[in-house]
Amino acid sequence: MQPKPPSTRLRAVPVIFAAALFLTSAWATDHETVLYNFGTNGNDGGGGTSLIRDAAGNLYGTTSNGGIYPCGIFGCGTVFELSPVAGGGWTEAVLHNFGDGTDGAQPNGLMMDAAGNFYGVTGSGGLYGGGIAYELSPSQGGGWTESVLYNFSRGGGYGNGSYSLIKDAAGNLYGTMFYGGTYGEGMVFQLSPNEGGEWTETVLHSFGNGSDAAYPEAGVIMDTAGNLYGTTYGGGVNRIGAVFELSPRQGGGWTETILHSFNGSDGSGPWASLIMDAAGNLYGTTEQGGAYCPPFGCGTVFEMSLDAGDDWTETVLYSFDNLPDAELPVSSLIRDGAGNLYGTTSEGGENDDGTVFEVSPRQGGWKESVLHSFGNVNDGSVVFGSVVMDRAGDLYGTTLNGGAYYSGLAFELTPSSIRPGLSVPH
After folding, report:
1. CB within 8 A of 94, min separation 6: which ones?
2. How many domains does the chain have?
3. What is the pLDDT of residues 342-370, one digit of tens each?
4. In whole angstroms, what is the distance from residue 247 CA to residue 136 CA?
């Protein structure tokens, strides 16, 4: 538990964070619908990451491989759109193929601004091989135009399928690098637009100094006061991960505060971005650690809350257990209006091929339910991306593997009486 510097402490509600939808949970059972199988044709993408959804119900995302340009044997990846078809079904359109010339390759998650432009990072490619930051904008007359905003020299887009940039009201973009910085253990950066279309990178913080956080796998979120929050896979007092805050200083520069260092029993190795509720509490997952599955642990769901003395306290809401429970979450959570949290795991479930789960507040504690276990016939497997929820309470996401062509799929989960979910209270 670390004190917050008094000069910057504001209980601000978030302006950039994973969606908190105003719904009451109805999940007791689920029904999965496969919306699209990646790999349907030779130029299609493969290995889906997190989805985002527009007001018309279209889904957008990236694939980490596939497309028309080769990167080894798997392809360099795509940006795609999934659109519902009148009368039923979905159609897929590839908006951009990565890998042409000095373009990026292996994209992570997307962010959409109010004008309908997409922003993202790639894990490799670009002029220096360290990935790029890019913008994808709709073109007059149809199609999409990609603009390379910045070429990273090392580690630019390294992260999981949830990783995406965020954008502030002034148009600046914020993200993380797994490597790089002064100590080589990662950094938080800002990209600022200049007149003439150029972008300038500013390193806000270099990780890895002493017991500092290190190696951020996920992006950052921002509150209304402009403070940034995130997690790192390593570093901290115990070198197994930390939660940090970066606050802008008067006169320039940023101050880092370690809000929590994980100790193993409360989690270790967080991969995912945080989310924030209206009261300023933070929620996240750790890939490993927790009360079960020795020696490394199956992962946790945790909350960071601020007390009246401006100290942050971590509470483990749920420790994942051995099969058939969910295991090893690597994606960000979403939260509905009733306070229920939803996420995915890369392993676990009835077939050990990954899950979608819910963690719900109950009197005296929290309860976890596995909403869907992947790995049935022609089902997907291994989930690295987050889910997104519509106003009806349906969940949408993608899998990295599995499906009809073994290249992953996009799915919808609908509350129904089709199949009972597995409830695993602790």
Report:
1. 43, 44, 45, 67, 78, 79, 80
2. 1
3. 999 999 999 999 999 999 999 889 999 99
4. 30
Amino acid type, 188 = V
| 236-250 residue pLDDT tens | 999 999 999 999 999
Question: Is there a domain that residue 248 lies in?
Answer: yes
Q: Which two structure tokens, joined as six digits, stand for 58? A: 């279209």
Q: What is the DSSP letter of 4?
A: P
Domain that holds residue 379: 15-419
Start-end of H helices in 113-193: none
**CB within 8 A of 284, min separation 6: which ones?**
231, 243, 270, 272, 273, 274, 275, 301, 302, 304, 332, 333
**2 within a domain of the structure (yes/no):** no
Considering only CA atoms, which of 423, 317, 303 is closest in space to residue 365?
317
* Cβ atoms 387, 374 nearer than 8 A: no
Q: CA torsion 290→292→298→302, rounded to 10°?
A: -30
Q: Domain of 29: which CATH number?
A: 2.120.10.30
Local confidence band at 44 (pLDDT 50, 70, 90 cut-offs): confident
Residue in the structure block whose two tokens are 């509600």: 13
Structural domain includes residue 371: yes
Q: Is the peptide bond before 295 cis (omega within 30 degrees of 0)?
A: yes
In a domain, 135, yes or no: yes
Tell me the pLDDT of the chain averaged across its residues.
Answer: 88
> Which tens digits make up the pLDDT trace of 311-345?
999 999 999 999 999 999 999 999 999 999 999 99
Q: Give residue-wise pLDDT tens across range 88-108.
A: 899 999 999 999 999 999 999
Structure-token pair, residue 340:
């229920």
Q: What is the DSSP letter of 200?
A: E
Residue 194 CB partners (closer than 8 Å, separation 6+): 200
Name the one residue in this structure whose structure tokens are 């199956």: 298
Q: Is the pLDDT of residue 34 over 90?
A: yes
Write out pLDDT tens, residues 155-187.
Answer: 444 444 457 899 999 999 999 999 888 999 999
Rounded CA Rg of the chain: 20
For 294-315, what is each residue's pLDDT tens digit?
A: 999 999 999 999 887 789 999 9
At residue 173, the 3 state secondary structure works out as strand
Q: Report the alpha-carbon distance of residue 413 to residue 389 in Å, rounded.
A: 9
CA distances from residue 135 to 50, 62, 102, 278, 321 in whole angstroms, order as listed: 17, 13, 15, 30, 41
